[in-house]
Amino acid sequence: MTILILMGPPGSGKGTQAKVLAGRLGVPTISTGDIFRASVAGGTELGRKAQQYIDAGEYVPDELTNAMVRERLAEDDTRSGFLLDGYPRTLDQVAVLDELLAAQDRRLDAVVELEVDPEELVQRLLRRAELEHRSDDTEEIIRRRLQVYTEQTLPLIEVYAERGLVIPVDGAGEMHDVSQRILQLAESLLHRDR
Ligand code: ADP
User: Fold this and answer.
1) Which residues line ligand 1 (CB under 6 A)?
2) In CATH, what number is assigned to the domain containing residue 29?
3) Rounded (10°) angle between helices 175-190 and 14-25
């Protein structure tokens, strides 16, 4: 069983690489951003509550996010492991995840950190904004999302580093090259002595 977190700033290619990594490991990807966007599109109550935050580039409140992840992790397909994409992002979410895993007598295997130069991030996000028309991809909102990440999520790396869980991966350059690095990492995780 493999339980992984993939962390990285907005624009780091986290969503794409999460699918590559989880695909190779044969575990489902749980992407809180995707779940929120689907909830907004589906007009659910969660979506209605989350939309204002997402559109402003702010984090959805921990209460809502944690409740959603709690439900998702109770589903059967997570039994053989899972990869979290975009969760946890706050210290409160770290505490809730610790509690959820402990209650199921499971433990985190690793936190993969995608590292990308901040200037490259803004350029990538602006390019993506033109292609995808996400409601949170204007330049002002992009800068706000990067700031929120730096303030609220970057400290989590330290927390997990103290536990010896962080594996940094170079996220610079072409998507394809980053995917190759991610696949290499997947091989070492698959063969790791557990
Ligand atoms: P990005 O990583 O580029 O910010 P995501 O698709 O992962 O994009 O997330 C989009 C938005 O969804 C975030 O800006 C935030 O509003 C919300 N969101 C996703 N995951 C979380 C989380 N763990 N906690 C709070 N808000 C979240």
Assistant:
1) 10, 14, 32-33, 36, 53-54, 57-60, 65, 86-87, 89, 93, 136, 145
2) 3.40.50.300
3) 30
